[in-house]
Write a structure and sequence with these properties.
Protein name: FecR protein domain-containing protein
Number of strands: 21
Structural class: alpha+beta
Keywords: Membrane, Transmembrane, Transmembrane helix
GO molecular function: sigma factor antagonist activity
Pfam family, one: FecR
Helix content: 25-40%
InterPro entries: FecR, Ferrdict_sens_TM
Radius of gyration: 22 Å
Number of helices: 10
Distance between the termini: 83 Å
CATH class of the largest domain: Mainly Beta
Amino acid sequence: MTRRESSADIDIAAADWAARLDRSMLTSAEQGDLNVWLAADSRRLGALARAQAMLVPLDAQAQDAAPLLAVPQPARFSRRALLGSGLSTAAMAAGGAWLFLRAAPERFTTRKGEVRLVPLADGSSMTLNTASHVEVLFDAHRRHVRLIDGEALFEVARERQRPFTVKAGDMQAEALGTVFSVANIPSRPLTVTVKQGRVAMRHARSTATLALAANMQGTIDAQGQLASTDLAPGTIDRDIAWREGKIIFSGETLRSAAAEFARYSDVPIAFADAFTGNRTISGYYSATDVSGFVEAVSLSLGLRVAPRDGGYVLSAQTVIS
């Protein structure tokens, strides 16, 4: 009879994978081995998250030197804190509970054009979109995330005793086990979009609660008004295409598209006339490839392109009176 793998055995393997992820990006073969290992036992994902949670983020200098990411990449960590601390693998196996106890929040950020996958200590995961800033604080009674600005997708491990809450501005969203995104973007309403499960959304200064189920979106406007919308099939996958480094447009104006690209790149897109800016487009584009987007829309819409101030100016082929 095959012996069931013990938690200690899982923690030992998880520590090894965490160290390998720290040293360098995995090869395709290694990534395949990791996926197979994770899929074979539901306990392994949480063990890997705990092992990585023992490590500290790379220092700021290394962060600044890292290239911008156009697609999601595993979070990068340093082994120095783990190795210098003298913590043994046995301590990791025995100390799963105290890994959740943190005196101060962990901070995670992405720069413009970067997308980052962050495993959390409870087995949940968080994917940060471009230019996002997040604080995470887990303790014995709660799992709390503060989205200071930007956008994040959460895949939440179910724990009935510790609800998972996300605070963004004056909004708080609470879930048990679900997949949902939160957007806290200047000049836009605070938004919660639920892909799976249920989320309770409320204003920080109100007792009113908005119950959101799968394929629903909730918003809070500048006046604190709550509103919900049922989403058409496929809408959420389109809205979170950013986690794959993509932007999908479906009937948006070029001006709106330019504003979306500005979230990911410092290459500006301008319009010589209102008519051009109000033309509509649909399509699937790389979020950081502004030149590719400009070339594609100029060809499909018959527009002129001129360089200006490190970016592009689009105009109609004929003068619009």
